[in-house]
Specification:
Length: 269
């Protein structure tokens, strides 16, 4: 098992782990990972649960063989261009040389590796100019909103139907020192005003359900990027988002994303 903590947290975590031999790894200047060799899987699970109960980011980690190889591959940081990387807090890979890293902790959906998420991160990379107010609909882990802030957005409102997703987003915002710029909200209908950027990786059915609210939430010069859909669904979904019009479409394998804005913006492009 492994626990992601800071230099100040190592002693408390090690004490909680007790008699099991521990090793401390420092994948970055701020992050410390306390790795414990626990042979008995039940004991490892018990320890993980106890440490999580104390508020620590503890995860079960295979100790060897193909399972460890798979785990190492799964926890490798993802890089987006030369400006952004996303990784789990417990990633053991050395982060020296990586661009700005967004760390993700426990819970919430989305670690950046799904094509539907990647398409939106890439759009944020290309389109965020700085200072934008962002609405992240279906925030999951909060990954898209946190990437937007790392790229220069000023504030994020993160919405999800799952309480667990909003909790994970708040924890991840704090983990990255962004909690003063991220607020969560249970429903789009509770929100007033328009946003410069709206991202929604929520799939066809939820986009169609929320279409009027999504369209209303985009400011005059703002843009909306939807994802989690197939290429064949794009044109039909765009119609639901009237009066917004399509500005751009991207596809990665079976997944597509569409960027929309007001027609005045489309005419100016
Ligand atoms: C595919 S995940 C995307 C997570 C993250 N934004 C990403 O891109 O990796 C979809 C998220 O949308 C949320 N969701 C689904 N329907 C929703 C709705 N109608 N309103 C708000 N959130 C919704 C789910 O709970 C889930 O957390």
């Amino acid at each position: 098992m492994v626990v992601a903590t800071t230099a100040d947290g190592v002693a408390a975590v090690s004490a909680r782990i007790g008699d099991h031999p521990v090793e401390v790894v420092a994948p970055s200047a701020a992050r410390r990972l306390v790795r414990a060799a626990v042979d008995d899987e039940w004991e490892a699970e018990r320890l993980v649960a106890t440490l999580r109960g104390d508020g620590h980011m503890a995860v079960a980690r295979p100790s060897e063989g193909v399972r460890l190889d798979a785990w190492m591959r799964h926890t490798r940081p993802l890089t987006f261009g030369d400006r952004l990387a996303v990784c789990f807090a417990w990633s053991e890979h050395d982060r020296a040389g990586l661009p700005t890293v967004i760390e993700l902790g426990l819970g919430g959906f989305g670690n950046g590796d799904h094509p539907a998420t990647k398409l939106l991160v890439e759009l944020l990379l290309e389109r965020i100019a700085g200072g934008e107010r962002v609405l992240d609909v279906g925030c999951g882990s909060g990954v898209l909103g946190l990437c937007a802030i790392a790229l220069g957005a000023s504030r994020v409102v993160a919405v999800d139907i799952k309480a667990e997703a909003m909790e994970a987003t708040r924890r991840n915002a704090a983990l990255n020192g962004m909690d003063d710029r991220v607020e969560t909200c249970a429903s789009l209908s509770e929100l007033d005003g328009a946003f410069d950027v709206v991202v929604a990786n929520i799939g066809r059915a939820a986009i169609v359900d929320l279409a009027p609210q999504l369209a209303r939430s985009v400011s005059a010069r703002g843009w909306l990027a939807i994802s989690g859909i197939s290429a064949s669904q794009c044109s039909q979904i765009v119609e639901f988002l009237h009066p917004l019009v399509e500005l751009e479409q991207r596809t990665d394998g079976e997944w597509s994303a569409v960027v929309l804005g007001h027609s005045t913006l489309a005419a100016a492009v």
